[in-house]
Amino acid sequence: MDFTLSEEQRQLQEKAYRFAVEKMAPFSRQYDREEKFSREIVKMACEAGLVGCFIPKEYGGPGYGFLEVALATEQISRIDLGLMMAAMGAATFGSENIVLFGTEEQKKKYLPRLVKGELLSAGAYTEPDSGTDVVSGRTTAIKQGDEYVVNGSKIFITNGTVCDYMITFCTTSPDAENKYRRHSLILIESDRKGIARQKIAGKMGIRTTDTAEISFKDVHVPCENLIGQEGMGFYHVMHFFDVTRTMVAGQGVGLSQGALDRTIKYVQQKNFRGRPLATYQRVQFLLAEMATKIEMIRNITYKAAWKVDQGQIDPSLNAMAKYISGETAVWVCDKAVRLHGEYGYQDDCDIQKCYRDAKILEIYEGAKEAEKLTISRRLF
Ligand SMILES: Cc1cc2nc3c(=O)[nH]c(=O)nc-3n(C[C@H](O)[C@H](O)[C@H](O)COP(=O)(O)OP(=O)(O)OC[C@H]3O[C@@H](n4cnc5c(N)ncnc54)[C@H](O)[C@@H]3O)c2cc1C
Questions:
Q1: What is the residue with the minimal CA distance to atom 27 of ligand 1?
Q2: What mean pLDDT comes out for the span 39-51?
Q3: pTM (2 d.p.)
């Protein structure tokens, strides 16, 4: 077993971190306060080769594996999870389905333009009454001739008001006896007639991402926009999550590491009773616990992502990585705020932002209970 990263992987980590420090950090606080999504940052990330890392070379991407995606994600999330999501994570979100299940024509049409930043995508699965229980999604796409007519609504969709298209989880055979064979994935361009998009403002964290509620009223979409097989949407989405959860795990590793980095710096500068906080053993022990937990989630995340790249996808391991990474990020950020004392509670201290940002890691791409369901099912 060799845990050494290759030279190329180390360079990718360095490039991603440098990008975040130089191009994101200067805007971090302002954009967070203004809840501003910046397409400019997406463009810069595209120019740096950080968007669509998983897109194969023949479709204009760098053709990295999910381990590399996790490595880059980690480094950017150390600086700003929200901007990482806005610029990199969400820019192509949902389009993993095109890579996994799309036709050659769909891959050629969409993937190269995502890498260049000419298109932004979204993955629209969640509905007001179906989040964890994806299969109860009720947005319908009923076939009429060579078109689907879509009706329904989606909620909490990242990139919802800014995306050019969304890969949408729809019910195509509402009467199918097997409820797992009722759905399909359909690519819906955002400018189609009958679509209304409403930004959801006031999020607790990752405020630089665009989140929206979307409604579809008699939206006509050509059947050629079907991604993958009709009736297999549920299985496609489950497979999609089995792959992409390693990215979210990488976000947790990066955010936790960023919180630890900031805390180590702070306790060396801050004096308590005439000497730096860092000289107190209780403080050192807490930092040691934080570092240990981060190393644990880093290892499980890299292993899960590596297995995806080896074609040995392990849904249970990926669920473990995502669940423990999110929970650890929340724990680490809590301790980081504690060590920053009253300063950690202030708006001009980045650690409070880490704390707010961390919570989403226990919610999106499957709440942690959804991951525990996957893990426990495997146990029996
Ligand atoms: C900022 C943000 C961005 C998002 N981006 C996207 C996006 O891009 N695309 C998209 O499709 N969705 C997105 N989501 C939605 C997100 O994936 C859902 O919120 C998540 O899947 C949980 O679904 P829910 O909110 O409907 O909660 P529910 O499913 O209603 O769950 C509520 C609570 O009950 C628990 N629970 C549910 N079922 C069980 C069970 N069987 N056993 C035990 N506990 C259970 C859950 O874990 C949770 O704690 C986003 C959400 C947020 C907040």
A1: 131
A2: 97
A3: 0.97
Q: Which domains does the chain have, with CATH numbers?
A: 7-115 (1.10.540.10), 121-231 (2.40.110.10), 235-379 (1.20.140.10)
- Residue 147 among the catalytic residues: no
pLDDT over threshold 90, residue 286: yes
Per-residue confidence (pLDDT) for residue 100, from 0 to 100: 96
Give me the mean pLDDT over the 19-46 stretch: 97
20 pLDDT tier (thresholds 50, 70, 90) = very high
d(CA 287, CA 61): 39
- Distance (angstroms) between ligand 1 centre and the Cα of 217 equals 24
Whole-angstrom Cα Rg for the chain? 21
- Ligand 1 pocket residues where CB is under 6 Å: 93, 123-126, 131-132, 156-158, 203, 206, 211, 360, 363-367, 369-370
When pLDDT is cut at 50, 70 and 90, the band that residue 65 belongs to is: very high
Look-up of token digits 């496609």 = 236
* pLDDT tens, position by position, 301-329: 999 999 999 999 999 999 999 999 999 99
Instruction: Specify the ligand 1 atom closest to the Cα of 209.
Output: 1
Q: Are 42 and 87 in contact (CB under 8 A)?
A: yes
The first and second tokens of residue 27, run together, are 């805007």
Choose one of 32, 84, 85, 156 to mutate for the ligand 1 pocket test, by most ligand atoms within 8 angstroms of C-beta: 156
CB atoms within 10 A of CB 71: 25
Q: What pLDDT is attached to residue 1? A: 86
